[in-house]
Amino acid sequence: MKNKVDVLLGLQWGDEGKGKIVDYLSPNYDMIARYQGGANAGHTLKIDGKTHVLHIIPSGIFHKNKLNLIGNGVVVDPVIFKEECEQLVKLGVDVHSRLLIAKKAHLILPSHRLLDAVYEKSKGNLKIGSTLKGIGPTYTDKTARLGLRIGNSLAADFVEKYNILKNSHLKIVAMYGDSIADFKIDNKPFDVYEKEWFAAIEYLKSFQLVECENVVNNMLKNGKTILAEGAQGTMLDVDYGTYPFVTSSNTVSAGVCTGLGISPHDVGKVFGITKAYCTRVGAGPFPTELFDKVGELLREKGREFGATTGRPRRCGWIDLVQLKYSVMINGVTDLIITKPDVLNNLDVIKLCTAYNIDGKHVDEFPFCVDEGSMSPVYTELPGWCSDLSYAAGIAGLPPKFVSYLDFLNQQLDTKITVISTGPGREETIKC
Ligand code: GDP
Ligand code: IMO
Ligand code: MG
């Protein structure tokens, strides 16, 4: 019988700890596949005390004898890809044998990155807070049927096609009254970046470029196991997130089908991951955001600074209205809780169980959470006020923490299967 693809994805606004947990789960799978997003992601892994941040390469890359796949639905900046690979090679990781790349994945051009900056600048106070990695403009061109795919780089007319697309972008830049000279890409002038980009295209071509949908389906038929690694989080999904303050891809489980080329019948478990509190980086609604000492404590103790941009993350209490919505949309079968250790010293833990919007009690995530007067309704639970040691396993956890888990389990109606108590690979409890 054909195997199914299990999926791990974020249930909040990203940075839930996906990288760490994918690395932890990787030994159970033959392949780890990214299905959407690009280098806007920053996935952190801590292995033997050393921290690694991956942006575009799947988080299974540190495991020997595992394949990793950059799927159709991903958008790839060759320069960032090359830099990331070179760092891994320095660490002794044989990226060429462990990594496959979908020919149908779209390329992020230097001029896509330029457009990202131009659009953000033009938005004034309504900026999304994009990571400026060119994600939005690249997906826009994909949908508009203008984009270039990795497979195009193998054809003789690639440079010609590149120039046509680049020139159309430059016209847009001029329409906005901007000029190339006003922007740098990763601190480099456009033409310097462009030169690096073409060199990186050659590097990219040295990898195994594949028809991702065939590879994935054949593996499943041959009894192999695949874990799909989400990027961003459900609330950043272009359809179901807090639009327009979202990214430009389908981060939800449905994105796995289009992003890897599998049928809905081929999706198995859906691991939904959430922090024990909540964070968001960039602009947009965040109902449970804290502006007080507790918010600061979460940021400091949780080291909530962006893995891609270094920006401080906005912090708040866990939001069960939002999480129920995410569990529903993704069909979460297994819940994974990360970073409860950040709450170790708090006497009281708050969990948002409803919103009060203009005097009305709302317990389903609404169309708009940032209009009118909105305040979260909280349930308070006693804090466990002690360290959470992974070593003693589930039986060694403080009873008040177990009550907190029971509350989450009951509210979200989903079993908790993994608890993470620290950034390290080993700081993980299987339930
Ligand atoms: P991702 O984008 O979902 O992979 O998450 P990030 O890597 O952007 O952010 C998660 C951060 O929390 C990283 O710095 C991780 O090392 C760290 N982390 C992951 N799990 C835990 C945990 O259980 N406890 C603590 N204290 N840190 C964790
Ligand atoms: P991982 O995979 C957190 C946010 C940006 C911005 C919005 C749009 O590490 O969880 P984009 O660059 O896509 O135009 O940005 O989405 N964002 C993330 N926030 N984690 C991420 O990825 C994110 N990727 C994008 O901050 O608000
Ligand atoms: Mg991240």
Give a quick precis of the structure.
The protein has helices spanning 18-25, 78-90, 95-98, 110-122, 135-143, 158-175, 190-204, 212-221, 254-260, 293-301, 320-330, 399-412; strands at residues 5-10, 31-34, 43-47, 50-54, 67-70, 75-76, 99-102, 106-107, 184-185, 188-189, 208-210, 226-229, 267-275, 278-280, 314-316, 318-319, 334-338, 348-357, 360-362, 374-382, 416-420, 428-430. With 431 residues, it is an alpha/beta fold. The structure holds guanosine-5'-diphosphate, 6-O-phosphoryl inosine monophosphate (IMO) and magnesium ion (MG).
Record keyword descriptors for this entry:
binds 6-O-phosphoryl inosine monophosphate, globular, 431 residues, binds magnesium ion, binds guanosine-5'-diphosphate, alpha/beta, 4-stranded mixed β-sheet, 10-stranded mixed β-sheet, 22 strands, 30% helix, 12 helices
Helical segment count? 12
Shape: globular
Beta content = 15-25%
Structural category is alpha/beta
Compute the average pLDDT. Answer: 97
- Helical content stands at 25-40%
Distance between the termini: 28 Å
Give a short account of the largest sheet: 10 strands, mixed
Largest beta sheet: what is the strand line-up?
A: 11-7-5-2-12-1-13-17-21-22
Number of strands: 22
Low-confidence stretches: none
Bound molecules: guanosine-5'-diphosphate, 6-O-phosphoryl inosine monophosphate, magnesium ion
Taking Cα atoms only, what radius of gyration do you get, to the nearest Å? 22 Å
Question: Could you explain how this protein is built, in words?
Answer:
A ten-stranded mixed β-sheet has the order 11-7-5-2-12-1-13-17-21-22, sandwiched between helices. Strands 16, 18, 19 and 20 form a four-stranded mixed β-sheet that branches. A two-stranded antiparallel sheet has the order 3-4. It is α/β, with parallel strands linked by helices. It has helices at residues 18-25, 78-90, 95-98, 110-122, 135-143, 158-175, 190-204, 212-221, 254-260, 293-301, 320-330, 399-412, and strands at residues 5-10, 31-34, 43-47, 50-54, 67-70, 75-76, 99-102, 106-107, 184-185, 188-189, 208-210, 226-229, 267-275, 278-280, 314-316, 318-319, 334-338, 348-357, 360-362, 374-382, 416-420, 428-430. It has twelve helices and 22 strands. It is globular. The protein starts with a strand and ends with a strand. A hairpin with a 2-residue loop joins strand 3 and strand 4. Bound molecules: guanosine-5'-diphosphate, 6-O-phosphoryl inosine monophosphate and magnesium ion (MG). Magnesium ion binds at residues 14-15, 41-43, 307.
